[in-house]
Amino acid sequence: MPQPKHRSAALGVALGLACTVLVTACATTTSSTGRKQYVGGVSQQQLDQLGAQAFDEQKAKKPLTQDGKQSAYVRCVVDAIVRELPPQWQQGGWDEAVFVDKNPNAFALPGGKVGVYTGIFDVARNQDQFAAVIGHEIGHVIERHHDERVTRQMGAAGAVQLLSVLAGARYGQSGSQLASQGGSVIAQTGFLLPGTREQETEADVVGQRLMAQAGFDPRQAVDLWQNMLAASASRPPEWLSTHPDPTSRIGELRKRAESLMPVYQQARAAGRKPACG
In this protein, which residues make up the domain named Peptidase M48 (predicted)? Predict the structure, then answer.
């Protein structure tokens, strides 16, 4: 449920106070969709380090696919989406990993990391539907949703533990030992947890735009979510937890798809015709 206005105002005040106390200054900015954001609790370099460390943790916990075709397929779609990002988000390249896990899930992290669970292929049944997944997840990164989450936590009681995690990401083994007292990067930052409903809606908007710009059919985002909804009949997947109402979400995706058709057609005419499989 959306937060009451007084709670949102209280959060803003708390963040403002926290930012005056912390060495790293926070900032108020506006996302590409016009949403006010509190960011800057840590630097982009630190966020990238946290993303890389969380990615390594996930690879240590879950088996990676041995299917070369799956890996090449994911890489092809990710590359096509990344080519449409602003230059600052292309620097350093993006890494992908395909995890053997039947849960229909995926994630992207600061520092250019994309993780895909093999279960997503059961609901993303063609490259356009899969591009909707990847566009959504990368949308979280470029709209600074992880930055928002960490900045919010910097103002919470767990700030000291989070700072110890940052020490581990920045200063190596001795810092990592300190960080381990507070748990893993994933546990402390919540990087792999779903975003707020506002963030999820924003990632839908940005991801659908990215897929159209890359030459993927934006109408397939509707089919993806219809598949997700059908798959959730008996047991809701992680993707649906805390996300916007699926029915209204599908309606919004359908409306945006029509407005994005000229973008998609221009991309195809310009030769952006992904053939990932």
Answer: 70-256
